[in-house]
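Saturday, quiet lab. Running sequence design on the structure tokens for the scaffold JK sent over.
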């Protein structure tokens, strides 16, 4: 028993002696701190890598969608409105020059300037009392041009969808600049005078151009912008119907050809019969010139 107690006591004394050394506890603290610091650094590195992966995935998703243009869902189609803020207060004082109109209408749509007549490529609107009035954008779009011209006055051009451009001339002032986004019925300026058409006084000259060609604005008032077409597009759309008409005409010509041949044969037979029946008349007619010649000689 005593030997075992001595062994147990000696073991305790050795452990106590080990912990009594000065460097034991600082070493334990340093080892613990190193372990904790290593764990913290490892956790941070794992978290940073995870955040980088998430950010990279989000960037890939963003780039996948940013390359495609944003399309507004269920976007309503706008109808062309009057360029005057109060349409009831103005009237058309000069119409669009239409090549298919009557001569009187074409003459009324000519603009006289510098001893030259020019066809009106738009419509001119003015008040009866010759007062200024607000001019608005007939459709939403982007201002392409806003400048003052010495002959035309202030000129504003606005680009719209479907390659449509609206032009506003003879403005006394302009409230927009090139690059501005405007909405339908936004005031863009005031009507004024210009040198090109002094006869109309204070007015606004309004044009609609489709693919660079002027069209009659009056024909598209209160109609959707998608309905605006040029004469070339209209002709191309009707080309598909032309062959059918030609085929019908050719069939009718084929039916009438035999009838015409029959009528020609009948006429020839009648001529032969008249020649056979009236030989005496032919002789008398041939003798008359001779008689006249003899009388002239006498």
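Result came back. Writing it out in full:
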């Amino acid at each position: 028993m005593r030997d075992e107690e001595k062994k147990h006591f000696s073991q305790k004394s050795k452990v106590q002696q080990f912990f009594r050394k000065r460097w034991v506890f600082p070493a334990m603290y340093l080892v613990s701190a190193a372990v904790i610091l290593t764990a913290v650094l490892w956790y941070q590195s794992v978290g940073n890598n995870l955040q980088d992966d998430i950010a990279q995935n989000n960037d890939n998703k963003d780039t996948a969608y940013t390359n495609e243009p944003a399309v507004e869902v269920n976007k309503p189609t706008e109808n062309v409105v009057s360029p005057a803020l109060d349409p009831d207060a103005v009237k058309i004082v000069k119409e669009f020059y239409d090549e298919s109109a009557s001569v009187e209408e074409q003459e009324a749509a000519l603009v006289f300037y510098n001893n030259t007549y020019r066809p009106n490529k738009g419509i001119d609107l003015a008040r009866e009392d010759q007062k200024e009035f607000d001019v608005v954008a007939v459709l939403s779009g982007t201002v392409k041009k806003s400048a003052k011209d010495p002959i035309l006055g202030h000129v504003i051009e606005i680009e719209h969808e479907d390659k449509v451009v609206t032009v506003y001339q003879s403005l006394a002032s302009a409230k927009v600049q090139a690059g501005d986004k405007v909405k339908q019925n936004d005031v863009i300026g005031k009507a004024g005078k210009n040198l090109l058409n002094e006869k109309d006084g204070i007015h606004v000259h309004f044009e609609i151009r489709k693919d660079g060609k002027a069209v009659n604005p009056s024909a598209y008032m209160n109609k959707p912008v998608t309905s605006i077409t040029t004469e070339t597009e209209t002709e191309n759309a009707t080309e598909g119907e032309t062959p059918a008409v030609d085929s019908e005409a050719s069939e009718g010509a084929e039916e009438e050809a035999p009838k015409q041949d029959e009528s020609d044969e009948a006429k020839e037979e009648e001529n032969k019969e008249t020649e056979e029946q009236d030989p005496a008349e032919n002789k008398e007619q041939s003798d008359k010139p001779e008689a006249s010649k003899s009388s002239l000689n006498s």
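Notes for JK: Residues 87-239 form a domain with the Glucose Permease (Domain IIA) fold (CATH 2.70.70.10). The helical segments are 2-19, 24-66, 103-108, 231-238, 242-277, 279-297. Ask whether to fix the surface positions before the next round.
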